[in-house]
Amino acid sequence: MTEVLNQLFIGGAWVDAADGATMPVDDPATGEILCHVADAGAKDARLAEETAVQAQAEWARTAPRARSEILRRAHEIILERTDELAHLMTSEMGKPLAEARGEVAYAAEFFRWFSEEAVRIDGGYGTLPDGRNRMLLSRRPVGPCLLITPWNFPLAMGTRKIGPAIAAGCTMILKPAPQTPLSSLALAGILKEAGLPDGVLNVVTTSRAAEVCEPLLRGGRIRKLSFTGSTAVGRLLLAQCADTVVRTSMELGGNAPFIVFDDADLDVAVDGAMIAKMRNMGEACTAANRFFVHRSVAGEFGRRLAGRMGALVVGPGTRSGVDVGPLIDATGRAKVEELVADAVERGAQVLVGGRTPEGPGCFYPPTVLADVSPESRLMDTEIFGPVAAILTFDDEDEVLRRANDTPWGLVGYVFTQGLDRGLRVSEALEVGMVGLNTGLVSNPAAPFGGVKQSGLGREGGRVGIDEFLEYQYVAVPVR
Q1: Where is the Aldehyde dehydrogenase domain (predicted)?
Q2: Which of 52, 91, 365, 415 supports an S-S bond with 264, CB 3.0-4.6 Å?
């Protein structure tokens, strides 16, 4: 395992919390404490803010090529340390090592992508329609940013936010989830090694999120918030940003529909379901939540999916051959247990799984439920666990109405062999992303984000850097 860093990272230095507080980091596979890390408070937040603000002007003047090269070097270091970072991530988060290695590659790619975007920030020049003025457009960094990342993809969610901020010329305070601070601290160390100037990135690990974040957002010197997490917390943060009109990006909750039509290739659909449901043990905002399967193929789809899910090996992510690791903590597992119990009480049939294993760790088996009632709680709740809930439908209009009947709109999945139908349904879904005959939509080169209460703005793709840039227009008289 790579060196475990457990202090705050402020101004390029590793420091303890001002009041000496620490917090434990647990291994969800055993329940044992891995280590303790610094637990930042308000004084630490003020120091990080002052550091980021002081570093902003000089960092904004740094040549785009210099910013690009830092990101490229960090990309290479991450890949060189794939196994070390994967073991660190599995230890604090639980996902199997194979998935952790995949996340390391995914995380590194954000740095490579934005290293290329850093040198493509452009503006514009032209004459205005009345002929009296020339228009000079330039783009400049929005300013110091607060980046708040979740626990489910602790490395990739960091690089997806840090990458465009560095490329755009913004300084940052990163607040990782308290369950998974170690990956973020390791990332800070890598960026320092890659040549990132002191003060550009500051990492505050904390269990006191309100004490740390609210003063930053209400204080007026942080000009950008990028948050990935629940819709409930997102609403709270938006309210705090309103006082000083902080620019926001929000990647919030999801309730993804997975639609299988009667003409779908069931082999392709089941393969897609395994990815869309079981990536990260189902602990992903893009996870398929509601499986709408045409009545004529629902039985066969359910049997095939249950067979595949039942064959998965559950255990500690560090153990060879394991497919499914533990859920993040006891609270997360209890939520899944309650949702499954509610669905069964309302008439759902358990095709596989559904029972919590005995022993240590926060494990829950891959589970498939058939004949799920639309009134079940898991129909309007983000499950965040390895549970596939199957409902049937009879026609296209019906399934579109039911799929869109949710306040969330992050992603949807559509399986059909008809191109016209596939495009028609994709366009009718009220979501920001669609997987058409595929269970994987995330890619650093594509814009990631949702509509309705699933968020604001986009991350990744050509537009990802726009969230960290402002336009300035200069009028120059024509003489």
Answers
A1: 14-474
A2: 415
